[in-house]
Amino acid sequence: MNTNLPTSLQALNPKAAHTCLGIENFITSKLQKSLSGTVLLVALSGGVDSSALLIILTCLAKKSGFTVKAAHFNHQIRHESDAEEAHAQSLCNALHIELLTEKADVCTYASENKLGLEEAARILRYEFLESSRVSIGADWIVTGHHANDLAEDVVMRLIRGTGWPALGGMEAICNNRRILRPLLMTPKSTLISFARSSSLIWCEDASNTDKNFLRNRVRTEVIPLLCKENPAFLEAITSLWELAQIDSDHWAAIIDQHLDKTDFEQPVLLKEDLNSMSLATRLRMYKAVLGSMGKGQPLQHNLLALDAAWKANVGGKVVQFPGNKIATIRKGSIYFSYR
Amino acid sequence: MNTNLPTSLQALNPKAAHTCLGIENFITSKLQKSLSGTVLLVALSGGVDSSALLIILTCLAKKSGFTVKAAHFNHQIRHESDAEEAHAQSLCNALHIELLTEKADVCTYASENKLGLEEAARILRYEFLESSRVSIGADWIVTGHHANDLAEDVVMRLIRGTGWPALGGMEAICNNRRILRPLLMTPKSTLISFARSSSLIWCEDASNTDKNFLRNRVRTEVIPLLCKENPAFLEAITSLWELAQIDSDHWAAIIDQHLDKTDFEQPVLLKEDLNSMSLATRLRMYKAVLGSMGKGQPLQHNLLALDAAWKANVGGKVVQFPGNKIATIRKGSIYFSYR
């Protein structure tokens, strides 16, 4: 590994420094998050995205006042897995970054739990990242998801079907899961330029071209068509994402305000509150209450059916939801419980 | 032309009758629109969509209590244009429907106004449809846009970049333009089945396969990939559309409530109102006020810049918008005017 990798903004050429500062600005201005005094745990695969992320954060650490650590999960599902771990280790050595590693038998876990290999790897990887985060006292798990990943995510959500603001794509901050995605507005091409200018060597993940995965088909077949129609397609996606975040904050505030009043053991949406809400608000409120009751995603037509029953004011009417949840309409209010 | 075309629900086979009733249900239940006593003017190209629409509405006319008329615009841009007009005429004769027709020189209009041929045709066609609607006293112009058109529209909006709820696609009712799209939830395949079972003959528009048009590339290249990933992709799109309409109603009510208080000559958003709004609401309010002031679409970053200036409370700060519109911040309120 090149031991002359940049570890400060001063060591970067102007373009690379500009990339770093743009990412810092995204965190502080758009996400309105100060990372001063925090410890960041970078999820380091050894690919170009997370490797560039590690260098970018290392260069920003002094200015922004955070500490950078890294964690590498060895999936052991490819021939190159051990070489990737060794690469991650030498990268961290060169940058003087503490690295946590873990090997896991993803194949056995997948077959035992009847999961796809990718899904099993994702579950075990995030379990490892979260336990690492806790063990070293880090505040955030930081991932290398970038604007191209975001575009793929939006297109996959469109294909599978979703609502709004979910259609806008993955979040940049996930408070529950302590995940931060500071590269989400940065195109992959910018990361590659950054990596090259830093003389970074990285591992190419061969599974990224495996057409058995939906994500890879979207990346290699769908996104190029969309970019051909609009060369600024990635910007259209990041703009859409920004609007989705703004709407997400709007709806979260309304939901929180109402859920605050609700007893989580026996959630109720009261007649007078429901009467003051639009259908758009009511549907999101039903979803939030059902979501607070545990596993089981309500379907759109379930939520619309509940609203139709509420509107018709069918006393005693019971609407069933996945996860053994039920909603009962009584005197214009809706009572939620388990079957 | 087959003179045994069905003109009543009773003349249809059960599946075709079911298609008709589903469309009637969409109008009355989802759109909550009664068409009883109205006159509908079908925009009839002679293709399968609008021809099926004409028969469907003819079969529903008695039950729903509306009158059906038709209008055909002869673009004269293809060899088949006159044959298509003759076809539309014989279809209307067979169904005993009054048909209005007009020929126009689209090519000259396009070159004189420096427009693309498709754009010029669209403008002249809608001018003709609206003047026909007024001249025969029809309530609505009814078009054959179906669920596949909707999916193309959503994908094109995603490609070009847009906000929400616009991303959900075209409206089923356009009150300003008096346009109704009752087939918007109906897949094209259902219309073709309907047409075949009615022994309908229709004209294929050769320009529908012309790859020079974005819409055709989306139809033939992008949508098939999305449908391959999710065979229920059209349903995902119509579900998304429904959520978009619900949100559209929500925001329209909020905007109307505030705009009601505003003087349209000199629109103002008052400090106390702005303070009570979320960013999501404020951005939509700025857009609505600027929209009410005439031509010129504000860009997302213009709207965000205005909000940032308002938040920073920069007294006297002027933000410029397309169409010579300006917004001035004074004592926490925003005053809109022309440059």
From TrEMBL, chains A, B:
Give the matching Gene3D superfamilies: HUPs (3.40.50.620)
Binding-site positions, ATP:
S45, G46, G47, V48, D49, S50
Q: InterPro entries attached here?
A: Rossmann-like_a/b/a_fold, TilS/TtcA_N, tRNA_Ile_lys_synt, tRNA_Ile_lys_synt_N
Q: Which UniProt keywords apply?
A: ATP-binding, Cytoplasm, Ligase, Nucleotide-binding, tRNA processing
Q: Which reaction does it catalyse?
A: cytidine(34) in tRNA(Ile2) + L-lysine + ATP = lysidine(34) in tRNA(Ile2) + AMP + diphosphate + H(+)
List, in alphabetical order, the Gene Ontology terms for molecular function in this entry.
Answer: ATP binding; tRNA(Ile)-lysidine synthase activity
> Biological process GO annotation list?
tRNA modification
Spell out the Pfam families in the cross-references. ATP_bind_3
Chief localisation class: cytoplasm
Location in the cell reads: Cytoplasm
Q: Which CDD domains does the UniProt entry name for this protein? A: TilS_N
Record-listed E.C. numbers = 6.3.4.19
Q: Tell me the ranges covered by the tRNA(Ile)-lysidine/2-thiocytidine synthase N-terminal domain, including all copies.
A: 40-220
One GO location term (cellular component): cytoplasm
The protein's job, in short, is:
Ligates lysine onto the cytidine present at position 34 of the AUA codon-specific tRNA(Ile) that contains the anticodon CAU, in an ATP-dependent manner. Cytidine is converted to lysidine, thus changing the amino acid specificity of the tRNA from methionine to isoleucine.
Give the domain section of the comments. Answer: The N-terminal region contains the highly conserved SGGXDS motif, predicted to be a P-loop motif involved in ATP binding.
Q: Which NCBIfam families match?
A: lysidine_TilS_N
- Family classification: Belongs to the tRNA(Ile)-lysidine synthase family.
User: Can you say what this protein is called?
Assistant: tRNA(Ile)-lysidine synthase
Q: Which organism is it from?
A: Halodesulfovibrio spirochaetisodalis
- Give the gene that encodes this protein: tilS
